[in-house]
Specification:
Layout (H helix, E strand, L loop, with lengths): L1 E4 L2 E4 L4 E7 L3 E12 L5 E8 L4 E3 L7 E5 L5 E5 L8 E11 L4 E5 L3 E6 L1
Parallel strand pairs: 2-11
Antiparallel strand pairs: 1-3, 3-8, 4-5, 4-9, 5-6, 7-8, 9-10, 9-11
């Protein structure tokens, strides 16, 4: 239901833009979040955007990451000033209303971000 993309290998200080797009038509998004999971660690919330486009961020993301959405219901995570400790698989998670009116809550497949020092 959710397709994440945009990960890759980047040097410290660099930037990447991650995208998360619903794979089928939807009526609305209640919220969409980005999480990340580093090897051997828990999956942690990074940022959330709600239907009214209000946003919240983890302390580790404030000032460096920006979550946004477009009219096609694609949600982005613009990352900048990346650090090696940002290395993780980034997952999108959404609560949305599908085109047939059913509610979907679930995860995208993850996209790997690797930051080299």
């Amino acid at each position: 239901q959710l397709q994440a993309s945009g990960g890759g290998l980047v040097q410290a200080g660099g930037s990447l833009r991650l995208s998360c797009r619903p794979s089928r038509s939807i009526r609305s998004i209640n919220y969409m979040s980005w999480y990340r999971q580093a090897p051997g660690k828990t999956r942690d919330l990074v940022a959330t955007i709600t239907s009214d486009r209000s946003t919240t961020y983890a302390d580790s993301a404030k000032g460096r990451f920006t979550i946004s959405s477009d009219n096609a219901n694609t949600v982005y995570l613009q990352t900048q000033s990346l650090k090696p400790e940002d290395t993780a698989v980034y997952y999108c998670h959404a609560d949305l209303l599908t085109g047939d009116g059913s509610r979907y809550i679930g995860w995208g497949q993850g996209t790997l971000v690797t930051v080299s020092s």
